[in-house]
Design brief:
Elements: H1 5-22, E1 26-27, E2 30-31, E3 52-62, E4 76-84, E5 87-93, E6 100-104, E7 111-118, E8 124-126, H2 128-133, E9 138-144, E10 153-159, E11 172-181, E12 193-196, E13 209-213, E14 216-218, E15 224-235, E16 243-250, E17 254-257, E18 262-265, E19 270-275, E20 284-288, E21 296-297, E22 300-304, E23 311-321, E24 327-337
Parallel strand pairs: 3-11
Antiparallel strand pairs: 1-2, 3-6, 4-5, 4-7, 7-10, 8-11, 9-10, 12-14, 13-22, 14-21, 15-19, 15-20, 15-23, 16-17, 16-22, 18-19, 23-24
């Protein structure tokens, strides 16, 4: 029996529908494209890690200077670790040439760790924020002593999942770690410098008034950073009824109320202290990107309640850490008088 043109069209449509269903692109009467294979940092549902050998490359990048040349293993000591049976296990060193062969066990669940530690006379801080945020395959970090040298180091959790099979050899992947160039570059005094050291101020009167000491600091150059962990203000008197620390501006932290400083009345002076952090993981990194103003505002607002003829000296101390964990400080004093 000969089919009419309408019957031919209907039959063709049925064939198309059946073919689409068979290939998984037409479901619940909604046209869909096939899903792409997962390329994220983790496994697909139900997938188990079996381990294997991989050729990994760790590349170093300067957060503030994309043109800077950095060499893995020279500008920082970098190695691979796994966390197995409740402890850290060294599984290889990262080299400047890359393609480091690393063996992962099934117990790793598809993740190992990259440890970065300062190298002698190489002035860099690890930039954990940009390292994690800019990489799909770096999912977390820790600040721990993994190598047993009693010093903590940064370790980045890297994913081995979804590395494409290589045409020859082992599967490969490159991971990028970001760093800040430290401001001192070998000269301790250059970590933090003074950009504005205010003159002494007289004639402020005997009524309660708020005075602003507009200290300004700077770094040694653009595209550098300074790790700052503590701010102190010292007044050369123990009579705390004569002043009140109102606010202090700490770059990268904000205006900190004087009540957040700890007060220590000593033998001949009074110290106010604000601790930003206790190690490289929680301090603030003052930094100056390219083309920005190399000036950092450290203004102190102090309420003065001076008597006639009284004068008091206020000294600002800024404490920073060099790349090698050495503490340095700088200070400047301003005298206010009635």
């Amino acid at each position: 029996m000969k089919m009419t043109s309408g019957e031919k069209i209907a039959a063709l449509f049925i064939i198309i529908i059946l073919g689409a269903v068979a290939f998984g692109v037409y479901t619940d009467w909604t046209w869909q494209l096939p899903e792409e294979a997962a390329v994220g940092p983790g496994p697909t549902t139900g997938e188990e890690w079996t381990g294997g050998t991989y050729e990994l490359t760790v590349a170093m990048r300067d957060t503030l200077d994309a043109s800077a040349s950095m060499t893995t293993g020279t500008d920082a000591s970098i190695s691979y670790y796994a966390y197995r049976s409740g402890g850290w296990v060294f599984i290889g060193s990262a080299t400047s040439g890359g393609d480091d062969q690393v063996e992962s066990d099934p117990v790793d669940d598809g993740y190992i760790w990259v440890l970065t530690e300062e190298a002698s006379s190489k002035y860099y801080y690890a930039d954990t924020g940009n390292t994690v945020s800019k990489s799909t395959h770096i999912t977390d970090y820790k600040w721990v002593d993994a190598d047993g040298d009693t010093d903590k180091e940064f370790l980045y959790k890297i994913s081995l999942w979804n590395i494409p099979e290589a045409a020859s050899g082992y599967p490969k992947r490159t991971y990028y770690l970001y760093y800040y160039a430290e401001s001192s570059q070998g000269s301790d005094a250059d970590l933090i410098q003074w950009d504005n050291q205010p003159s002494d101020s007289s004639g402020i009167g005997t009524t309660t008034t708020t005075e602003y000491i507009d200290w300004k600091t700077k770094l040694s150059a653009e595209k550098r950073a300074a790790g700052v962990f503590k701010i102190e203000i010292v007044v050369n008197s123990t009579d705390t009824t004569k002043w009140e620390i109102d606010k202090v501006n700490i770059p990268g932290v904000g205006y900190i109320d004087g009540s957040q400083f700890t007060e220590d009345v000593r033998t001949s002076d009074t110290k106010y202290q604000y601790i930003i952090g206790s190690d490289f993981d929680d301090i603030v990194y003052w930094n100056v990107p390219s083309g920005t103003n190399n000036q950092l505002d450290n203004t102190l607002a102090v309420k003065c309640k001076f008597g006639s003829g009284e004068a008091y000296s206020f000294t600002l101390y800024v404490y920073g850490w060099l790349y090698d964990r050495t503490s340095v400080s700088d200070s400047d004093a301003v005298t206010l008088s009635a």
